[in-house]
Every structure is written in structure tokens, then in C-alpha cells.
Design brief:
Elements (H helix, E strand, L loop, with lengths): L13 H16 L5 H13 L7 H5 L6 H8 L18 H18 L2 H4 L2 H15 L2 E2 L4 E2 L4 E2 L5 E3 L4 E2 L4 E2 L5 E3 L4 E2 L4 E2 L2 E3 L7 E3 L2 E3 L4 E2 L4 E2 L4 E2 L4 E2 L4 E2 L7 E4 L4 E5 L12 H7 L4
Parallel strand pairs: 1-4, 2-5, 3-6, 4-7, 5-8, 6-9, 7-12, 8-13, 9-14, 12-15, 13-16, 14-17, 16-18
Antiparallel strand pairs: 10-11, 18-19
């Protein structure tokens, strides 16, 4: 069966959603935008509307419960830490400008309004992504609970889709070509640790070429290049490059077939040769 996605009618609150998104987009378009303030005020209006108009006063008010004051202060990204800030290779000059937008991205997904609000979340992330990534193409579509390392080392082409609960570890850099699709719970890495000393870290750019599909719960390790229109199967671990149009499955992932739409010259290596050369990816 051919099952394209359905086009749904606008929700009854579409006017409110459009106005809210337009305000965020216009604010970010201003070079003088205070991103920490944008994050703080946006989250306050969604999570603590009773305090949104007087945050500073509420934080300093001894009559407000201490936990509430702490929570309100934590809406400001300057008052919290994200894991990548502890990494020695974190470039603060690049990370601090994107940190407020990552905080807004992550926090929105954890609020009632963002939990299952698919369209609103996709549109918000589409606004934020070009201000976070090194490059972001058109029609970027990202679902809930996707997280990054730095964010600023992401290069994303056109019509890329990233599904729920995906980790995009762009510490060493991730490049996604046009029409890449990453399924739920996949992990894409671009750094690795020495098996002898955990503090010995190697960063390597990971590349997903045009039309690549990374399917459910699959993992792509640092420095791997997944070739054009290739696929990494469910739960597979790609430890080596994946050739164009090949479908790789297993741990470690090996080629099991070539897509029927592949041009000539993309034959599968024989099992004997794979064992002899180790070139099974």
C-alpha cells in the first residue's frame, strides 16, 4: 500500500498558534535579540503564567515558596548548566548563543503544551533550528525529545526528518544531506573515547548522505559515512562506512542487500571477502 501522510485541517486555535510562533520568529530575526530573555519569558508564559509579568519580583519574594523561586530562576539559561558545557572542547563563543534556544527547545517538549502537540512543536523547532545549527535547509521536520551535544556543529540539508527521542551528538560534527530520515530512538555519534582512557576523546565528522534512512533504535558511530540512499536497519550499529544504496543490519552492521533502485556497480561483497578484508560495512 502507498500511504502518504494525510493533510489535516487547521486546529481551532490556529490563530493563537500562528501569532505565538510569529512573535518568536520576529524576535529572533532582530540581531539585538536577548536570547536568554526570550527563553525565560517564553517558558514563564507557558509554565508559570501567574508570575510571567513579574519574574524578578517573585524570585526575590520570601513569601513565594523556595522551590518555586528556584524553578522561576532556572527559566533563565544563565542560571542552569547543560552537559556539553562541561566538555573541554566546548567552544563557549559558539555554544552560549545557542544555549538559550536549546533550553527553549528541550523545555517546550517537557511542558503540557509541547508533550503531544506535534504540529506546534515541529513549527517551533523549524524556527529555532537555523539559529542553532551551522546550516539548516528548508522544510526541516523534527519531532519531540530530540537532543544535541553542541547544536552548532549540525549541518542539515533540505527535507530532513528526525523522529522522536533521537540523540544527535554533533560534538565532532554531523552532516545530513537532503531527504535524510532518522527514526525513533536512533543515536548518531561524532565522538569516541579510548578504550584505555576515557578522557582520551577523538572527534570525527559523521556524514549521512542524501536520501539516507537510519531506522528504529539504530546507532551510527563517530566518523562513519553512510552513502547516498543507504539504510541502517533497526537496532543495527554502523561501525564502518555504509556503501550507497546498501541496506546494512546487525551488530556490527553489514550489508545484506542492495536497494532495487540502485544504479549499477553497487553489488554486495561476498561473505568470504567480507571475512577476509573486514569490509563488511
Amino acid at each position: 500500500m502507498w500511504l502518504p501522510l494525510r493533510t489535516l485541517p487547521a486546529r481551532p486555535n490556529a490563530t493563537l498558534a500562528n501569532a505565538w510562533l510569529e512573535r518568536i520568529e520576529q524576535t529572533l530575526a532582530d540581531p539585538a535579540c536577548d536570547r536568554n530573555r526570550l527563553c525565560r519569558e517564553t517558558l514563564a508564559s507557558l509554565a508559570y503564567p501567574q508570575y510571567a509579568g513579574h519574574l524578578d519580583e517573585a524570585i526575590g519574594d520570601d513569601n513565594v515558596p523556595l522551590g518555586t523561586r528556584l524553578a522561576l530562576s532556572s527559566l533563565d539559561p544563565r542560571n542552569i548548566t547543560l552537559e556539553p558545557e562541561f566538555y573541554q572542547d566546548c567552544d563557549d563563543s559558539r555554544f552560549q548563543p545557542v544555549k538559550p534556544l536549546l533550553c527553549l527547545w528541550y523545555s517546550f517538549d517537557r511542558l503540557p503544551i509541547g508533550g503531544q502537540n506535534v504540529e506546534l512543536g515541529v513549527r517551533l523547532r523549524r524556527i529555532l533550528a537555523p539559529h542553532i545549527f551551522k546550516r539548516c535547509g528548508k522544510n526541516f521536520k523534527c519531532f519531540q525529545h530530540v537532543e544535541f551535544s553542541f547544536g552548532y556543529n549540525m549541518e542539515v540539508g533540505d527535507d530532513v526528518v528526525v523522529h522522536r527521542h533521537v540523540l544527535l551528538d554533533d560534538r565532532g560534527g554531523i552532516v545530513m544531506g537532503n531527504r535524510v530520515s532518522v527514526s525513533d530512538y536512533a543515536n548518531i555519534y561524532s565522538h569516541t573515547h579510548s578504550i584505555v582512557e576515557q578522557k582520551d576523546v577523538t572527534n570525527a565528522v559523521t556524514v549521512l548522505e542524501e536520501g539516507v534512512r537510519i531506522t528504529y533504535h539504530a546507532t551510527v558511530l563517530a566518523g562513519v559515512r553512510v552513502g547516498e540512499n543507504a539504510m541502517v536497519g533497526a537496532c543495527a550499529v554502523a561501525t564502518k562506512d555504509v556503501r550507497p544504496y546498501h541496506v546494512n543490519v546487525g551488530i556490527p552492521a553489514k550489508s545484506v542487500r542492495v536497494k532495487p533502485n540502485a544504479p549499477g556497480g553497487h553489488e554486495i561483497l561476498s561473505t568470504t571477502r567480507e571475512r577476509r578484508t573486514g569490509d563488511g560495512a
